[in-house]
Amino acid sequence: MERLQKVIAHAGIASRRKAETLITEGRVKVNGEAIRELGTKVSKKDVVEVDGLPIFQEEPVYYLFYKPRGVISAVTDDKNRKVVTDYFPGVSERIYPVGRLDYDTSGILLLTNDGDFSQRLAHPKHQVDKVYVAKVKGLADKKNLYPLTKGIMLDGKKTAPARYDILSTDKKTETSIVQLTIHEGRNHQVKNMLKAVGLPVQKLKRETYGDLTLQGLRPGEYRSLNSREINSLLHQAK
């Protein structure tokens, strides 16, 4: 038996807090009866409806995916481009990505059918470190990267302090390889941060997500997360 709001969140309908609001507003039915009690528990046999539409009580699943470049972080695309779920033909659950990676960015992407888990990790107040490696145009040094450690203004809002490491510079091609660690997830954030300090990104990869790495995976491959990894992510997201 699971609490009703948790079942709704796992189904990806809403966060657990939003699910509680749906329940108290009388928009949720169990076996045809409107439920307003937040403590209500349901089993796999119960029929749960939200706004008249039934939801499917799937077992939660969690995957780490090595997203290739040229793939959309979505489950569908109106332009018929390749999407991340195209790489999961044998998975019957209705999974979706946690956050996103740009079309031309590769690296770690998490996918799940657990809406509560996704909301916890994607919420801006939570601080799960993510490490990116970028090939940039220009010669990186402490002078141009230092402002990122204090936070810079992007679209009228200051970024959280980032950590950086200069992996290499090439004076001949005037390019550098920079590692950047952030915990936020704004749209195009890493690209915009590096562009703001005069180092436009040519190629970008997300190497780690919390404690998770791409070890053992090639682009387009995935694996399931184990319970220790799931609990570690949730702990970091507190």
From TrEMBL:
Pfam families reported for this sequence: PseudoU_synth_2, S4
Entry keywords, A to Z: Isomerase, RNA-binding
InterPro entries documented for this protein: PsdUridine_s_RsuA/RluB/E/F_cat, PsdUridine_synth_cat_dom_sf, PsdUridine_synth_RsuA/RluA, PsdUridine_synth_RsuA/RluB/E/F, PsdUridine_synth_RsuA/RluB_CS, RsuA_PseudoU_synthase, S4_RNA-bd, S4_RNA-bd_sf
Domain of life: Bacteria
Enzyme Commission number: 5.4.99.-
Gene Ontology process terms (BP): enzyme-directed rRNA pseudouridine synthesis
GO molecular function, one term: rRNA pseudouridine synthase activity
GO cellular component: cytosol
SUPFAM superfamilies: Alpha-L RNA-binding motif, Pseudouridine synthase
Annotated ranges, domain RNA-binding S4: 2-59
Matches recorded under PROSITE patterns: PSI_RSU, S4
Similarity comment text for this entry: Belongs to the pseudouridine synthase RsuA family.
NCBIfam families: pseudouridine synthase
Protein name according to UniProt: Pseudouridine synthase
Organism field: Enterococcus florum
Origin organism lineage: Bacteria, Bacillati, Bacillota, Bacilli, Lactobacillales
Gene transcribed to yield this protein: rsuA2
